[in-house]
């Protein structure tokens, strides 16, 4: 099976609060629908989708000073951040359903939590049942309760790593705004097998992003057993056909 993340900055306009990038979301939904129609293709083992926040969630989280490590005990703040992410999730589900993709929501706030050290606990039995019944579960970056800190942000990237591990994913894909991890000359780095080799070129994210940026993504993916790919929207169809566009991380 495949775990695929649609980056928040791919499906939204990240610099304008709560603005969907409808054209990009539709392009992604088209690629997913086409790949699922292809019986016996790379998606035969099932697909779990995760999406990030982009201009939904991040603005609300930074307004309330909430990040992956700084929490809040204000339920109003939790509802705002979670509500923004549910709105975006609904947009994603609708675009997929319009294309006959049997997409269903899984909201991390209601299922996951962090322990006092920040370790993520994400139950996956419901995701496994959904997959077995032919659904495409769609999770998203969210706020979740954390022991001793109220509620903190969980990024879609962390969910991808945890899902890939728990579901023993064969392939992991991160669809980003860039065609892969870029070097100093903006050329795509084909393969990354250790973090130190690329540390200097992995800058922080430029717009409001309370989670890790490219460095965090690469670090998380390097922890996994299997190979993963980071690619742009134009590489999505090829990834879903079983190819390795962009940067391969293993
Ligand atoms: O865009 C973060 O998810 P990400 C979600 O995958 C929130 O980092 C609530 C800021």
From TrEMBL:
Q: What class of enzyme is it?
A: transferase
- Give the keywords, sorted: ATP-binding, Isoprene biosynthesis, Kinase, Nucleotide-binding, Transferase
Q: Which domain of life is it from?
A: Archaea
Q: Which GO terms describe its molecular function?
A: ATP binding; isopentenyl phosphate kinase activity; kinase activity
The record places domain Aspartate/glutamate/uridylate kinase at 1-224
Q: Which Pfam families match?
A: AA_kinase
EC id: 2.7.4.26
Which GO biological process annotations does it have? terpenoid biosynthetic process
Residues of the site described as Transition state stabilizer: 14
Where along the chain is ATP bound? 5-9, 54, 213, 217
User: Which positions bind substrate?
Assistant: 53, 58, 156
Q: Which reaction does it catalyse?
A: isopentenyl phosphate + ATP = isopentenyl diphosphate + ADP
Listed under subunit, the entry gives: Homodimer.
* Its biological purpose: Catalyzes the phosphorylation of isopentenyl phosphate (IP) to isopentenyl diphosphate (IPP). Functions in an alternate mevalonate (MVA) pathway leading to IPP, a key precursor for the biosynthesis of isoprenoid compounds such as archaeal membrane lipids.
Recorded protein name is: Isopentenyl phosphate kinase
């Amino acid at each position: 099976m495949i775990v695929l993340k649609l980056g928040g900055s791919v499906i939204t306009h990240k610099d304008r609060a709560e603005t969907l990038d409808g054209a990009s979301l539709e392009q992604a939904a088209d690629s997913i629908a086409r790949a699922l129609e292809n019986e016996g293709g790379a998606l035969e083992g099932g697909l779990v989708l995760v999406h990030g926040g982009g201009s939904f969630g991040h603005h609300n989280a930074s307004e309330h000073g909430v990040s992956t490590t700084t929490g809040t005990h204000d339920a109003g703040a939790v509802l705002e951040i979670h509500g923004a992410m549910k709105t975006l999730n609904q947009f994603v589900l609708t675009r997929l359903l319009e294309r006959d993709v049997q997409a269903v929501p899984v909201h991390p706030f209601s299922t996951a939590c962090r322990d006092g050290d920040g370790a993520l606990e994400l139950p996956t039995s419901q995701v496994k049942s959904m997959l077995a019944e032919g659904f495409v579960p769609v999770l998203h970056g969210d706020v979740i309760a954390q022991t001793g800190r109220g509620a903190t942000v969980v990024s879609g990237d962390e969910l991808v790593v945890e899902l890939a591990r728990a579901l023993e994913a064969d392939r992991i894909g991160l669809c980003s705004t860039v065609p892969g991890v870029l070097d100093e000359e903006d050329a795509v780095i084909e393969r990354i097998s250790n973090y130190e080799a690329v540390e200097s070129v992995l800058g922080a994210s430029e717009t409001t992003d309370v989670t890790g940026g490219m460095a965090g993504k690469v670090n998380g993916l390097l922890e996994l057993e299997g190979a993963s790919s980071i690619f742009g929207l134009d590489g999505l169809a090829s990834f879903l056909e079983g190819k390795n566009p962009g940067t391969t991380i293993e």
